[in-house]
Amino acid sequence: MVGVVVTLAGVRIAVVGAGVVGLSVTARLLARGADVTCYERSGSVMGERSAGSSRIFRLAHPTPALVRLAQRSRAGFGQWEAAAGGRMVGTQKCALSLTDLAVWASAMENAGAPFEVIDGPSERLRVPAVKPPAAALVDPSGGVIDVDAVRVHLVAQAGHTVVHEPVHAVDDAGSTWSPSGRAVFDAVLIAAGAGTPPLAEQVGISVPSTLAHHVRFTFPIADTRAWQCWIDKPADGLGTYQHQSEPGTWAVGGSLDPSKVAWEVGRHAATEASREAVTAYVREHLVVEPTVLESLHCTTVSGLGDGFTVHRSGSVVTISGENLFKLAPLLGEVLADACLAGSTPTVEELAVTA
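Structure (tokenized):
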């Protein structure tokens, strides 16, 4: 049923989680006439995985299917920008230095997405490296996402539906239990990030559930820098993602040894290990002052990379995946379809219609 658009006024849908994906789905469902309640266990929307001033948008992915879906998501951001009257995705471009560069380049070419493979010394590669990588794929459609602008837009569309209380239990017939009691819905979407696995397990859906800590740090830079966003995954050493966070700051997040950021080590120890590793990387590899201005902690689920998986058990739909902010407009549409039409789409099916 992929691609089928169903509008059913009065259909009652529960969305568990008011992150960027949950709010995007809620807004889409409201536009189709559904009666939506969005549950958020914290006191703020987009306050956990969606927190922070910026994220990286990119078309570049390792498979043609994901590239096509990213193209569809970029069109969705364009619709949001038109509705909000302002830009949400920047024009910085995104450089990727990867060991499997040829695979990513082939995926981009197969999907008809613009890209360029650039030698490290080229002036067209603008990254803050002491020694530039040998080569990088530059995605001209990439750029920094203005998270605050996205939040304002989605809250305006769907904020009135948010109930700030946790959902303790669900069943596959569409019931939820929260401090307000039991409520019955035609469908339930669980998009609660790290809170998804225990709820999904109650209806027999198994999703990755090993939690870990992740910390992103910001460092001071000169305001006049015109660097591209940068994803650096060397064969040896720390893999990082980097971008301008706010004027005068450069954000760097690193992929540490899992044992150093496992949930069991605790937030403080994981933060200190991350600070040490990222600061050492900045000091050795970047033309950036290695002074931490700010840190942003979030809870991640280990073992998930680019992409997503939609699961279903009866009336309950769940979404699992990492790096989903850049796909939020697409996921709003896809998951609204899943809730209303009873579908369970896959990335491959969706890419055919992208």
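The two ends are 14 Å apart (CA to CA). The chain has two domains: 1-89+146-208+304-354, 94-140+211-302.
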